[in-house]
# Entry
Amino acid sequence: MKYILMMHCPRKGYDSFGAWPKKDIEAHMAFMHNYNKAIVESGEFVSAEGLADPHEAKIVRAGKDGLPVTDGVFPESKEFLAGYWIVDVASPARADELAAKASAAPGPGGITLSIPIEVRQVLSGPPDEFADQSGIL
Amino acid sequence: MTPGSWDTASEHLLRDLAPQVLGAVIRRFRDFAAAEDAVQEALVAAATQWPQDGIPGNPRAWLMQVAFRRMTDHVRSEIARRRRESAVAVPCDEPAPASGEANETDPDDTLILLFMCCHTALTPSSAIALTLRAVGGLTTAEIASAFLVPEATMAQRISRAKQSIKASGVSFGLPAHPERTERVRAVLHVLYLIFNEGYTSSAGPQLHRPELSSEAIRLTRAVHALLPEDAEVAGLLALMLLTDARRGARSGPDGELIPLTKQDRSLWDSRKISEGVALVTAALSKGSIGAYQLQAAIAAVHDEAARVEETDWPQILALYDLLKRMSGSNPMVLLNHAIAVAMVDGPAAGLDLLNALDADGRLRGHHRLDAVRAHLLELAGDHPAALAQYHTAAMRTTSLPERNYLLTQAARLRERAP
# Structure
């Protein structure tokens, strides 16, 4: 089963990350590198991306004419998606376990950050074969 | 070859044969899209059967036979489909048995295929995908995984690329001379993009995807073998080898990016460096200097310095001067030229050139301009300004390893500040 692990960070997170001591930035990056490597090696990695600074984040909606109407979200949002992993795991508990591991990434002074990680199942399973046989799904 | 001894060499054999077989099938059936599918099926069949049964005595003939059979099935089912769809019988010839001539492969086929796949009617991403499949013999799944996109997405990209080729009406043949030079340039550009995608990953958390760089080198080698007199082909191959030679030193144990000046040069691949240097030296002596040869020459000067202090910056500057003249005023070339000027005449001279680039406007908001400025400001001793520029560059880059690198640079300066 697939899960998405969404790593959130506060609005100011990107700026404050850049202000950490060098060795703490390096330790954090090394942690993330090894985390990615471990889930690739365990065969659970599907994809992962880090997102750019949210200063230009915006919400787009279709206007009456179907053309994009955009709002900057940064004035209201306290938290932003900083990046995500999609993992293919054997159980929901394993998804939680992986989320907790990522959450424990070190911050300034090597103290764990307890990053909030939102865990959601990805709708990637095949339709149930019995439902399929039912003719009405 | 005994069963079970399937290895990289066997896989290379299969993939070297791919464009030759495809060329023969297209010449026989005149349908690029269907022929490409048929050859892909033959390659998949070979990849499953050969490791078990051993490589056949004449692997090319084996592939050709399977592909021809698939094509014949395809043509028959097309005829049947048209008959079903049309009340009027459509006159349609049954495919004739393959003549001896059509079974021959032609060394130019690989080149013709590259011309088709890299046609300017295609978007770069389509041209890249199609080149890797039709000429490189990679499967759609392999290409999708190299570009970190779902297989269905890549399949669609390839199928659209084939439609564009059909719509553009390009014929399967070598273009005449003035056009041919232009088409070779388009091919080299696509190969360069494939190499770069592998060397500086534009997506995902990894810095390198070596399989793409190696594939680009393999394909460029094939073009060089077909066009040994083309100095720019040799130049591009040299550039790839001289750049790829540094791959092992370019990232640290935690995946962090290590710039040229900080690399452990003992990790550089001396075999690739010698090959690259020999190629570019021979190419330059031919007298038709081009941008790839100049870039390769610059890479060679870097690679030939055993220690960073021994780098021959005046020579690099002279090469950038030539490149600048040759490439019009490509802003990326101007940016690298400014670095060379700074290394020869001091950081202030380089910073002046960056100001001119600000005024030019084409690099506005581009992180490379900020990153170079940060570096030159640091050389000039203005650490607070350098720190701010590193930070701006970090926020602007779209590469994760590069962002991490720039943030570390900023942190380093902050800690050095009194």
